[in-house]
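Convert to structure. Protein one:
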Amino acid sequence: MKQVMTWLVTIIYLLKNGCDEMLEPYNSVDWLAPRFCLGYINYNTWKGALMATIDQRLLAASRMIIPGGAVADIGTDHGQLPCFLLEKGLAPQVVATEWGDGPYQRAREHIETSPWSDRIAVRQGNGLEALAWGEVHTVVIMGMGGDLMAEILRRDWHLTSSFARLVLQPMTRPAVPRLLLAAKGWPLIDERVVRSRGRFFVLFSYQPGDRPYRLSALELEVGPQLLQARDSIELEYLTYCRRRLKARCQNLSLSKQPQNQSKRLKYELMGRELEEIIDGKSG
């Protein structure tokens, strides 16, 4: 009965969403796709497994880690990223952490039913405190606000500095971790934007360094590499950022407080600078 249900839910999903996006990560190893999609999806975990194949954020993060090195996924949720990394052979082992009791238990339950449970250590801890010094090569933090990310990194900088790479995907205020890492002298390795379900998500990766540098207000807001608009989706993202800056200016124009008018002028200048970049790339 479970096998029948596996086939049914997979066929329904494919009919509804199409095959291309789901199987895109496996184009180089086509024979692996049906094994992952059907052989490894059981009645209880099929939804999480399917999400691991189609979430563009997971794909982007998997391409930004140090291949072949141990990885820590901070705030792992259902453990989709650890399972994906192990299934693709990108990491030999993964540490998956959660802080709250409920999220931690859910993560354990999902990971224990996966084929890779023996290579995923599920731990409960606040931020990086569940990790030992230098235990992993790459630390991934996704789906949190930028303020919380910066707080996690700042809390024990000696521990943070023991990892060879950070991969971050802030849901809000990306300028905050960018500013922190620039002040600490950590160089930016890569910066990407993906679009999933009608929303843009920004990811960036850093490595340890000791030469602090400054970023402009626009670089902090949008991202120094993304401002280069290297492809169509990055150009679309810049256009989205321009609209967002314009909306902020309109909202602040309604305020009579001097500090808000200063912010409005700042956003107007950033918007004009961004518009020039967009026009240059579009032309």
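Protein two, convert as well:
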Amino acid sequence: MTDTDDPRGVLYPARLPTFRRVPAPDDLAALVRWFWIPVWRLAPGRTSRQNLLPFPASNLVVQHDGIVLSGPTTSASYRDLRGHGWAVGILLRPAGIVAIHQAPKEIRDTEIPFEARGLYDDICAAMTDPEDAGAQDRAVAIYGEWLRATLPEPDETALLANSMEDIVAGDRTVLRVDDLAERLSVSVRTLQRLADRYVGLAPLAIIRRYRLQEGAARLRAEPGTAVGDVAADLGYADQAHFTSDFTRTLGMSPTAYRRGAGGPEVGASGGERSPDPS
């Protein structure tokens, strides 16, 4: 769960702005999956559209104009970048989000301002030269110290929620809610409460998100593999069900996505479109 080269979540990797992921140190790994830092500098009048299918999780993001807490999402989304800027974000584990917001389902498909003035001031001071790796390292260290000072140690139930996430992310054979409940040695009802409390999504939505992320990565990396074979490998009964889920979530068919995954596309603004890196 800490592999910063994990391709899932990024729909068009070839279009990324300058971007870096930093793994969480061991003492924060139960709270944070990784730190992520995009930096962009665009010509006047150009727009970079970040298309993404986010991980089923929340992010806390420090940017030049404030801090936002982004909740779990139920579909693909995008963010348009203009001018120049940066962000320093963290992808939160289930144990991490509840330490920051007690009900992640209440911020589903939205983002809210987050008040942490000291964290904001210190990271802005560190990121005066955002393209410098040393500045980014200092920002990550500051973020880590804030997390250690602010967030409590996760309890046993929160760690069980982390295990739920690890199993779904790491084992493609987990396809159904009862599969996951069995692996965790809990009832389906307990699993549903765990997912609702610590992620803000239903267990089946979490499973499908990881499988669709994997499907998108396979469609990009294996242009010669038939869509039906990808669907079968992900546990779908047939190609039609995979196509239906994929289209409903991403807003395009697997075939259309595969056609567009190779390089930049030009939007109405004339700008390169690129995905969110979290």
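The radius of gyration is 19 Å. The chain has two domains: 13-150, 156-258.
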